[in-house]
Amino acid sequence: ARPEPRPLRRGGGVAMAVAAGGAGEEEGRGFAAMAQVEEEEAQGPRLSSSQLPVTIEDAIEEVKVGRTQWILLVICGLTFMSDAAEVTFLSFVTEQLRCEWGLTSAQETSITQAVFVGMICGAPVWGWVADKVGRRTAFLVSSVIICAFGFGTALTQGFYSLVTVRAIVGFGVSGLPVGFDILAEALPTSGRGAFLLYIEYFWTLGSIFVNVCAWLVLETRGWQLFTMLAALPTLIASIAGYIALPESPRWLVEEGRQEEALKIVNQWAKANGSKRRFKALAAEPHSEGGGISEMCTNRKLRRTTILMAIVWFAFGLAYYGVVSLLPRIFREQAVEPSADAAAAATAAAAAMARNGTQDVDVALMTNATARLLGEHKSCTISFNFKDISISSAAEILGVVFAVFMIDSVGRTWTQGVFYTLGAAMAVILGFRHIDMNILTVAASVARLAEMAASCATWVHTPELFPTRVRAQAHTVLNLVSKVGAFLAQYLISDAFSQVACGGMMAAVSFAAGIAAIFLTETAGKDLSEMSDVGSTKAGGSNSSLSDSDEDGADVTDQE
After folding, report:
1. For the segment 69-99, what is each residue's pLDDT rounded down to a tens digit?
2. Fewest CB within a 10 Å sphere: which of 286, 331, 370, 400?
3. How many angstroms separate the CA atoms of 262 and 115, rounded?
4. pTM score over 0.70
5. Is 38 exposed, middle or buried (0-12, 13-18, 19+ CB in 10 A)?
6. Could you tell me which residue, 306 or 324, shows the higher pLDDT?
7. Cβ partners under 8 Å of residue 273, min gap 6
């Protein structure tokens, strides 16, 4: 006969157990099952960590680095090449067009400056779009602009159309820091600094890629084909980004769109081979305001912004100044006519202008161009690609040094040491007439130092600002660097001697090293811990998932 069910009470929990009659073996299994139920009742219900709401910081930490982050690295890295390649590209093209189109020195400088004007105008626009509309939208639209007008450059037929098109390209290039922010926001705290530096290899690859393209086609096939080849990486990135680039889940959570962020994080977990799946993400308080106004009014953000502005300005002036200066140092002028031929050509041009002859274009040429055309009907410019490539390849070593130092030595001292080293090399580059081997070594160390320092600057910047202003802060500071790059074009022009140019670049680079040392160190710290200035977050982001499990169990026991 089956006995009646009897209640078992223990620790406040009630378990209904049925003692099965019959054989002793069945009875033993029944009592074992009852004992297990009693133990579970005593401990209270247990929830797996994936069933509890977790912070976005903890979720990304659990997902870890995997296939998703590597795909993001390639997509964002390809567009990162465009920023690095832009000045190197223009350094070659403007030298070539000075010969082909008879450009004056002022016109040559204006072409490069047009790009930086576009960058200066575009930086605040893309920062606002990224923080208010979305990171993905800003990234894709800016990439398409770079791609379309990059190819369109090859169709320009004169100085003014070239200046206009390259200014629009610059407008698009100013949105590229958004890609860096997307990658930074997709990485866990552990190893974030070193992984972010991998994107800097694409920067160096961009410079080398342009040098190789120039060596292959510039002198033999013309600058138009060279221009189209230089735009290829952005075309690939635009297509890949449209297919595979997600929105930043950190930004989605900040905007109160947890469901969309949850879907993306779970997709990342699956792609990375993680068995973890999340049921909900903890809501984070949405901060009103933000933007440039908060960067100016919040005391801590204001101090950080000022110091970082000094660093970014110096980076723009020193790095772009060195890169733009090298093709001029290592330029080989194929045509060097005699002084008598130069004087005759200039006099002939003046005579044609007085007599109103139809060859007005020759009369309007600069003395330098007339000097070349006086002895030859055309002029050619060639470059010492060997020395330029050696100095460009030195940037790879700069990234390697930064990778080893970024977490061990720290962001601040990495910048301080290498900006100071870059200042010393800039002084040497001011003396053009010293031995060419010494100049090659100095140029290589200068690019190595400025590259290593700027790597740390790029990593450090998004870690210093909260999610609600991160993109705007990064693009505004990038704007400041373009102001420095804009002024660098004046430094390397005929308006200043090379000694003065090297001295001013050295002084600014040294100032960046000093300013960087006074910034807050962020190595090994969460983005939320370091960047959510002035905001209170429910449940600290540093709490682990295991802690969340225990908290959930305690609440259930109390109930």
Report:
1. 999 999 988 888 877 777 678 778 887 888 8
2. 286
3. 39
4. no
5. middle
6. 306
7. 66, 67
